[in-house]
Amino acid sequence: MKNHAAPHKDALKKRVNRFFQSSTQLRADVYGFVDAVTENDQFDVYVFGGLVRDIGLFGLRDFSSDIDLVVETDRKSLVNALSKLNNQTVVENKFGGFRIAHGAWCFDIWCARDTWAIKNRLVKYDDITSLLKTTFLSWDSALFDVRKQNLICNNDYLENLVNGSLDIVLQDSPNELGSMVRLTRAIYGKGAKELKVNALDTLKTYFKKYSFEEILSYECQSYSKLFLDLSKLESLRNDVESMPSGSSLRIKDVQLALPLQDIVSVPNTLRTKNIRNGLHTSSQLSYRAQMGTSIGNSQLTLSLT
Length: 305
Prior knowledge:
By secondary structure, the protein is α+β, with helices and mostly antiparallel strands. It is built from 10 helices and 13 strands. The strands form 3 sheets. Strands 3-4-5-2-1-6-7 form a 7-stranded mixed sheet. Strands 8-9-10 form a 3-stranded mixed sheet. A 3-stranded antiparallel sheet has the order 11-13-12.
């Protein structure tokens, strides 16, 4: 996947607009879902994080991830709107949001005030822009108002995206290991070229807390495309530990990697997830990537009601 970062805010806004206005069935399903959710309710819907980031970095063609939506309404109104969806399975996740499979897409949708950082009083909610302070990665700190076709982000968001400069907005996390994996994948899967002060200090802390095996195992369990291996983690840790606190780190000539392809089946090692027709499905297959080791771990299954 080549980096084609949007050069300015208007360019990114146009990219995201084209995604929602596309006549292709896949993308039309996305707008159709938003339309169905808000058909009888007048509340604003925002795309948050990953879609804006990835379209900003790589363009429209290759985007196929889950889509995070935030609504500015109360929980009762959202539940009422979701209950009116025809032939849709809605499951609640452990953080108070809802996951819905629609067409070839999976949506995670939640109320703005139910965001983890806001509910736990780490960030004060004033208006929808407060969500920009709740993300772990700075590249996820962007919102797109689907109805008004308005991009909401900080003034330096596009500059940092174009330059490959990555930082941490809010270090507090309900899932530190998951945050660690996201940060390292942003380097090898998204093309981050510079870790700013907070990102570097966070990596230093996490490398002391989590082993390579834990990091690799979590990636295998949580993602269908794998970008990490032992040599990358060892090299990154060495670079991080060589830098004094309060500094930034320029990543050494890291080329955007293709997902690890040479994966062979081995018994009783790792479980991961497959993607079938765009939907995440649990898989009993076990894998060993080209990392020279196998890791014993079990699939984490969330209890959804």
